[in-house]
Amino acid sequence: MNAVTFSVFIFLFLVVTVLGFAAARWRRAESMANLDEWGLGGRGFGTFISWFLIGGDLYTAYTFIAVPATLFAGSAVGFFAVPYTIVIYPLIFLFLPKLWSVSHRHGYVTPADFVEGRYDSRPLALAIALTGILATMPYIALQLVGIQVVLDVMGLGQNSDNWFIKDLPLFIAFIVLAAYTYSSGLRAPALIAFVKDILIYVAIIVAVVYLPHKLGGWGHIFDVANDSFTKFNTDNADAIASGTAAPKGMIPPPLAHWAYASLALGSALALFMYPHSVTAVLSTRNRSVIRRNAALLPAYSFLLGLLALLGFVAIAAGVSVGDPPNPQLAVPQLFENEFPPWFAGVAFAAIVIGALVPAAIMSIAAANLWTRNIYKAFINRNATDAQETQSSKWASLVVKFGALVFVLSFSKQFAINLQLLGGVWILQTLPAIVVGLYTRWFHRWALLIGWAVGMGYGTWLAYGVPLPTDPSSHFGGPLVLLPWSDTTKVYIAVLALAANLIVTVVLTFVFRAMKLSAGVDQTRDDDYWADIGDQGVEPELDPHREVHA
Amino acid sequence: MSDSRLPSPPSRGLWILICVILAPAVILPLWVGLYDKDEPRLGGWPFFFWFQMALIILSAVLTVIAFALSRAADRKDREWRAGMAARRTDAAG
Fold first, then answer.
1. What part of A 474-503 touches B (C-beta under 8 Å)?
2. CB contact under 8 A, B67 and A82
3. Residue A35 pLDDT > 50, yes or no?
4. How far lies A513's CA from each of A123, A443, A445, A452, A518, in Å?
5. Where are the alpha helices (DSSP H) in A43-80?
6. How far apart are CA A28 and CA A187, in angstroms?
7. Which end of chain A is more exposed for a tag (fewer CB within 10 A), N or C?
8. Residues A359-384 pLDDT 10s
9. A468 touches A244 (CB < 8 A)
10. What pLDDT does residue A36 have?
11. Are A336 and A369 in contact (CB under 8 A)?
12. C-beta separation of B30 from A264 below 8 A
């Protein structure tokens, strides 16, 4: 453990945390209600500031740790995160303003609210809410793994046979996260956003400018990485031929094109259905802020691409990641090796805070979903404010425990697989939510059965994927062979969504022929175009208020 | 639920144009066969990598254009809806 690195890390971590709590207290006197509802998007903030804040929230452990790890490990499809973040913005541009309008017209705070209003189906709304909570857990798990690897590189995790000592960094990460959210709610994460984001941008920009320059330039880095992959493939030719090792590469071979494209498209479609992204979208000031941000956000994809390539930079720098290798150590170890100790401390603090804050926001969004669409809808219809708050706090703790279970029981080797598993589940809500924004043709019972089929099929497929190193393991990767192909793999989420849609369409025909009641639609055509200032459009959504016609 | 089909708003053409403008930002990144190559390199970067970075810039430009058009489309629709509402009031009165 380097004393300077560790001191700087602890110092920055404490400053940011104390600042968050102090700021929450300071603002409390002025406008408690505003802070209470503060989402990610920064309602009331101008375009530039919300752009700055949203950007800071995009840089989670996913971008810092998980994506570079796949490139470091020589996965030829690892760079899919870049097309993913390109495809996402046109989709946001087209779909989400409609969701904004209808939600602000009827007081919908969650996607489950919308689905219940649109389809007049409580079971379907329950399914949507449960999916959101479940899918958030592995996403939080990824953040925990991110914090863990940083603590590990700093020397907090000792090599020990004792499972508790070995996972100590993970437990520290979990306790810090739990304490953080339980006591401060959404307020502290929101108010430390500025300090946190400045830290993150400094770390990113130094990392993507200074490191490649120091290590001989990008051209050299690409060559070294490519040579090391070629060498690996030659040395392990037998293992690759027998299927016990995966070949490495930088560019997806023709057989992996579908895998690359389906990972990008599936992830893009999934992202904005997570509870925390919906909160962010709905908290913007008016419809056109969403579109303007969609036009500005691609700048972040550029930095994300450079961060991903740090995986190759780590190869060029000769970073070693332990035995058995843990590729997720690549970026923190690179920082430790190449940065002066004090700046390594800054960068580590940036990564840890950058994982902690999104994890807190995700767990709170999932907890609100629980309270609004499950607790109040099914368990205690006349809950008092105090009961609601208590239920939310417990739910956010349970969600984090769920995340811990995911970390402990699934392979941590590639945390990105956790996020991709969450994507398999959340994508099954697309027919009800996204298609529902355009047409009510799908029958509510067909949607529910289609959802169940997609969830079951997707989970079953994911269960059947072993880790390359251990044929008896499960949930080892995001890709499966297409049912009619021996060679072409695709992202499970897209396959499960296809099954979901087919069942939904077929059953919609059947149920309509049977004249099964389709319920009453609470929304009208012009609700989907309403903007701020129109009749009945609420400028701010209050999570404690009921939806209305 | 809407009782009758509303006549299509005047922005329809503009929205088709917006979708056409945004289409490359969705299709090109997913068309992997187009860019799965090492050559030509740019400043040492394999084509695969620099092409995707260039796509980010392209998609940003397209989204800015689409944003401007969507403002025009929304404005047109608002005027049209206001006109419809006024006519309905006249007919009722």
1. none
2. no
3. no
4. 22, 11, 13, 22, 12
5. 47-58, 61, 67-72
6. 10
7. N
8. 888 888 888 889 889 998 888 888 87
9. yes
10. 41
11. no
12. yes
